[in-house]
């Protein structure tokens, strides 16, 4: 048999074999093995030796920093945020055709995200990353490229709500204009001078012939109606045509109306607010505005489809 030793022949025995080849496992960078033939009935042969030099391991590492949506291919394997680490063996690439082992530990940057949640008025729009949005959307995304650390992309989610359109139509009845939009705030405008009249009710009664519009506010949205022409028909306080009398004028808030026919009386203050409404039959009627502040009032009298207006002063 062949006997394999370290140190010297007859030293520390490693193993014995009857084969002509033997595979050793070196314990250091350089190990010398001593070999000779031995047997129970034979004289040991001459001592030979073999020195095995172990080449150092060939290793490497990949520690790249990548974006959350980036990747690195190592030895045909793709590494990314879902697979950031591992080991790859490159065969027969080193001296003496040794293998090389590469360890992969990627530093994956967190995803860059943002959200735009906004409500805009009907007809308005917003521009995000060059894209115009003017309708209600939920979960739309825009990618801003190369804006983050290491040139990473940023993804922005857009949640946009468009408020319903404001109804800017109006209805004209005599010298009264009504905004058809309900549940809003109103500012009536004299179109001739583009000044606010001070009236803020849904209905506006004009006391002077002219063109009027209404600015309507719903939430944070504002729109304006078209101008409407209103003609105010005035009459003398003693109207022979309608046989109506209003007296005294000025008064202290108590006054009389005498009529020979049924009429509808509506009284407005200078802001256009309705402060009194009543249907009167023929006869003499005593009316009161004593709970109202002193000032000018407009008494609208409707009779047989026509409207006449009296200016009245309460002192």
Amount of helix: under 10%
CATH third-level topology of the largest domain: Immunoglobulin-like
SS field, number of helical segments: 0
CATH architecture of the largest domain: Sandwich
Largest sheet: 5 strands, antiparallel
Counting DSSP E segments of at least 2 residues, the number of strands comes to 32
CATH superfamily of the largest domain: Macroglobulin (MG2) domain
CATH class of the largest domain: Mainly Beta
Number of domains: 5
Uncertain ranges = 234-241
| Helix vs. strand class | mainly beta
Strand content: over 45%
Q: How far apart are the termini? A: 140 Å
Give the overall form: rod-shaped
Mean pLDDT: 88
Radius of gyration, whole Å: 50 Å
Give a brief description.
This protein has strands at residues 2-6, 12-17, 30-37, 48-53, 58-62, 65-66, 71-74, 77-80, 85-90, 100-105, 107-108, 112-120, 126-128, 131-133, 137-144, 154-162, 170-173, 176-179, 185-190, 195-196, 203-205, 210-218, 221-224, 228-230, 238-239, 244-247, 254-259, 263-268, 274-280, 283-288, 295-303, 306-314. It has 315 residues and is an all-beta fold. Strands 19, 20, 22, 23 and 24 form a 5-stranded antiparallel sheet that branches.
């Amino acid at each position: 048999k062949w006997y394999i030793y370290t140190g010297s022949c007859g030293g520390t025995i490693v193993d014995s074999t009857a084969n002509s080849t033997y595979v050793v496992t070196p314990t250091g960078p350089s190990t010398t093995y001593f070999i000779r033939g031995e047997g129970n009935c034979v004289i040991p042969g001459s001592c030979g030796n073999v020195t095995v030099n172990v080449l150092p391991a060939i290793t490497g590492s990949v520690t790249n920093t990548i974006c959350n949506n980036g990747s690195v291919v190592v030895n045909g394997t793709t590494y990314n945020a879902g697979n950031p680490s591992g080991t790859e063996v490159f065969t027969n690439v080193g001296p003496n055709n040794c293998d090389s082992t590469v360890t992969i530990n990627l530093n994956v940057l967190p995803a860059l995200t943002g959200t735009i949640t906004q409500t805009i008025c009907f007809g308005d729009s917003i521009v995000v990353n060059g894209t115009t949005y003017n309708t209600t959307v939920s979960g739309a995304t825009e990618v801003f490229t190369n804006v983050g650390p290491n040139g990473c992309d940023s993804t922005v989610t857009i949640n946009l709500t468009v408020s319903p359109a404001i109804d800017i139509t109006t209805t004209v009845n005599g010298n009264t204009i009504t905004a058809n939009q309900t549940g809003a705030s109103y500012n009536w405008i004299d179109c001739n001078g583009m000044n606010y009249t001070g009236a803020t009710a849904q209905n506006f009664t004009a006391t002077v012939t002219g063109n009027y519009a209404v600015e309507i506010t719903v939430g944070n949205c504002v729109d304006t109606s078209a101008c409407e022409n209103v003609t105010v028909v005035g009459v003398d306080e003693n109207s022979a045509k309608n046989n109506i009398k209003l007296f005294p004028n000025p008064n202290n808030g108590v006054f009389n109306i005498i009529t020979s026919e049924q009429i509808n009386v509506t009284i407005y203050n200078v802001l256009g607010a309705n402060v009194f409404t009543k249907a009167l039959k023929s006869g003499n009627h005593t009316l009161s505005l004593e709970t109202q502040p002193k000032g000018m009032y407009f008494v609208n009298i409707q009779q047989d489809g026509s409207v006449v207006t009296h200016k009245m002063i309460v002192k």
